């Protein structure tokens, strides 16, 4: 029998499925629950155990990891008679890896403490590719002792793992991350349209740009999306729209001006309103093309 902690995983989407599979590969016993049967079948095929409910998944777990779309889903799976807090054992560690509002994380940690459950907020950056390759950047909020306990697990999922401060800090840093990513994608999208309309070899241009100061992880990861107009979702516009709402609201609360971020937030919102919410966030290119007169 393994001496590693037993893990319950709630939420097996684009990110959650490969992340849970990486824990299985690292030797952890993972019991999972999600709403889609095909995702449960995938977990079972990878060597995980399928649960029929949240309560069943978490009842014997030492560590519960959640990866769901937004604050309402985190609250739905955490609270109530069928939720995590009512059914996880006292002393369990809950690691929420969703991208949600900092206040939701603070409230969850407070409610969990009353049940004897420890909490970390640990959102990630790196997209689907980073999840598959286990090279995610993981920004964590919570207590040092809980972070130390969780670190071996997080090391099976990511490469850069940093405790950023108390509960909610991980979410605040993730909000800043999403601001930088959105603005960067928008700048790349504008450059692509400018280059193409100028008749430049786009492949050559992006290669040389990525080798200089204009280079970025965003350009490295999204270059082929731009070149091939391939917007299969790695991180959906719908989710980035949610994240831009989080960062603009949080910034307003602390008195930080985000003039460029606010504009990009509106461009993300407009793309979603035009029916592109299910596409990858590199589809911001489509918005720039529309503004530049193209029919897309």
TrEMBL record:
Active site (UniProt): 174
Domain 3-hydroxyisobutyrate dehydrogenase-like NAD-binding: 168-287
The UniProt record lists the keyword Repeat: no
Gene Ontology biological process terms, A to Z: glyoxylate metabolic process
Stretches of the chain forming a coiled coil according to its record: none
Superkingdom of the source species: Bacteria
Alphabetized SUPFAM superfamilies for the sequence: 6-phosphogluconate dehydrogenase C-terminal domain-like (SSF48179), NAD(P)-binding Rossmann-fold domains (SSF51735)
UniProt keyword annotations, A-Z: NAD, Oxidoreductase
InterPro entries: 6-PGluconate_DH-like_C_sf, 6PGD_dom2, 6PGDH_NADP-bd, HIBADH-like_NADP-bd, HIBADH-related, NAD(P)-bd_dom_sf, Tartro_sem_red
Enzyme Commission number(s) of this protein: 1.1.1.60
Molecular function via GO: 2-hydroxy-3-oxopropionate reductase activity; NAD binding; NADP binding
Domain 6-phosphogluconate dehydrogenase NADP-binding: 6-165
Family assignment from sequence similarity: Belongs to the HIBADH-related family.
Name of the protein in its database record: 2-hydroxy-3-oxopropionate reductase
Organism per entry: Streptomyces cyaneochromogenes
């Amino acid at each position: 029998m393994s001496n590693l902690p037993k893990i319950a995983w709630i939420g097996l989407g684009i990110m959650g499925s490969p992340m849970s599979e990486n824990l299985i590969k690292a030797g952890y016993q993972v019991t999972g629950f999600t709403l889609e049967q095909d995702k449960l079948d995938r977990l079972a095929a990878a060597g995980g155990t399928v649960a029929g409910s949240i309560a069943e998944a978490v009842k014997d777990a030492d560590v519960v990891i959640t990866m769901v779309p937004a604050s309402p889903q985190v609250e739905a799976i955490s609270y109530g008679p069928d939720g995590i807090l009512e059914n996880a054992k006292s002393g369990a560690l809950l690691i929420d890896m969703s991208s949600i509002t900092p206040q939701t994380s603070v409230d969850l940690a407070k409610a969990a403490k009353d049940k004897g459950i420890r909490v970390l907020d640990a959102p990630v950056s790196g997209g689907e590719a980073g999840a598959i390759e286990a090279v995610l950047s993981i920004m964590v909020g919570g207590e040092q002792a809980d972070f130390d306990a969780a670190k071996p697990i997080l090391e099976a999922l990511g490469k850069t793992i940093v405790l950023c401060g108390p509960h909610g800090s991980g979410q605040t840093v993730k909000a800043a991350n999403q601001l930088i990513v959105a603005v960067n994608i928008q700048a790349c999208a504008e450059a692509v349209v400018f280059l193409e309309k100028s008749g430049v070899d786009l492949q050559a241009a992006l290669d040389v740009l990525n080798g200089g100061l204009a280079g970025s992880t965003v350009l490295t990861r999204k270059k082929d999306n731009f070149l091939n107009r391939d917007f299969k979702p790695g991180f959906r516009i719908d989710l980035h729209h949610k994240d831009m709402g989080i960062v603009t609201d949080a910034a307003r609360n602390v008195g930080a001006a985000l003039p460029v971020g606010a504009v990009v937030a509106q461009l993300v919102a407009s793309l979603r309103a035009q029916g592109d919410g299910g596409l990858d966030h590199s589809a911001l290119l489509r918005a720039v093309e529309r503004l530049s007169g193209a029919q897309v």
